[in-house]
Amino acid sequence: MKRCVRNRLRWQFACLLVYVLGTAPLFAVEPFTYEPVAEFFRLPEGVRLGACTGVDVDSKGRIYLLHRGKRPVVCLDASGRFIRSWGDECIETPHGLRVDRQDNVWVTDIGNHQVFQFSPTGARIVTLGKAGTAGNRIDEFNQPTDVAFGARGEIYVADGYGNSRVIKFTPQGGFLGCWGRAGKGPGEFDTPHAIVVDRQQRVIVGDRENDRLQVFTANGELLAVWPGFAPYGVARDRQDNLFIADGRANQILQLNDAGKVIAAWGSEGAGAGQLQLPHMLATDRRGDLYVGEIKGQRFQKFARKNTAR
């Protein structure tokens, strides 16, 4: 695509060597431990969970769950009490959910090839993409997977299953640029599935089928490649610690500042603390983790047992 910003591979390899061999720390390096919290939420009759694909927590501690069933967006209070749900009228195949700094709720829809912004009460505010139309123009998506936000409200969309790219928008939805293409080389993607922006405005992309994270500047310049896991979901806590939902290993991972795994928990199964294809995850102010499972069709809460010194 002519307007898409593409990285030069030679430059990428040079940057890769510089940043992998020596960079300023991005994240705290002390490993945490967690324990599952049994039955942390309650749903009313008529709301039955399907595959659980997205989760996030807003500034007031409200928990937003996304699942593939009726009323796909579910809002709970911090204690797990049901508040409201919505989404049947516009969401076809839910995938990712994020909450922005204004507590608006963003949902990616891989069925309709769209991205929606909702108010905390479920009113639709912004729609990006064309309903039912898969494309690669600047106003189109092909199964977008996730959303992240820059310090000035910039919107990053992982345009994930079909287009293998990241698109950057203004807070009002104006096109700012994009990068990436299908492939296995540095700066290329095979399913950019999850995306977050850290305190230094580095854009961290879960390149799922290439079994790695890739780290970029806000303009798409490659900084680092961290291999060794299948990042279905990516989340940061308030101190910029980084967590991965590895859907193939059925584990949650904590990474250090060099992208190495320093803690892991979970195993395949239906018991408390076990996982069945963990898809996406989020943290709250206390550092507790919330994980949505595709095969398990459930959300689990993991309470943090220690804090970084």
Structural description of this entry:
The structure is a single chain. This protein has a single domain (9-304), classed as Neuraminidase (6 Propeller). The protein contains 1 helix and 24 strands. The chain has one helix at residues 9-21; strands at 34-37, 51-57, 63-68, 73-76, 82-86, 94-99, 105-109, 114-118, 124-128, 144-149, 155-159, 165-169, 175-179, 192-197, 203-207, 212-216, 222-227, 231-236, 242-246, 251-255, 261-265, 278-283, 289-293, 298-304. The strands form 6 sheets. A 4-stranded antiparallel beta sheet has the order 1-24-23-22, with no helix packed on it. The chain has a 4-stranded antiparallel beta sheet with strand order 2-3-4-5, with no helix packed on it. Strands 6-7-8-9 form a 4-stranded antiparallel beta sheet, with no helix packed on it. A hairpin with a 5-residue loop joins β8 and β9 (124-128). The longest helix is centred in the first third of the chain and has 13 residues, at 9-21. It is globular, with a radius of gyration of 18 Å.
- CATH classification class: Mainly Beta
The structural class is mainly beta
Tell me the count of domains. Answer: 1
Give the CATH superfamily. TolB, C-terminal domain
- What is the annotated CATH architecture? 6 Propeller
Give the overall shape. Answer: globular
Largest sheet at a glance? 4 strands, antiparallel
- Helix count, DSSP H or I runs of 4 or more residues: 1
Mean pLDDT: 91
Could you give the order of the helices and strands? HEEEEEEEEEEEEEEEEEEEEEEEE
| Strand order across the largest sheet | 1-24-23-22
Number of strands: 24
CATH topology, by name, is Neuraminidase
Q: Give the proportion of residues in helices.
A: under 10%
The share of residues in extended strands comes to 35-45%
What is the CA–CA distance across the termini? 47 Å
Query: Which residue ranges are poorly predicted, with pLDDT under 50 across at least 5 consecutive positions?
Result: 5-28
Using only C-alpha atoms, the radius of gyration works out to 18 Å
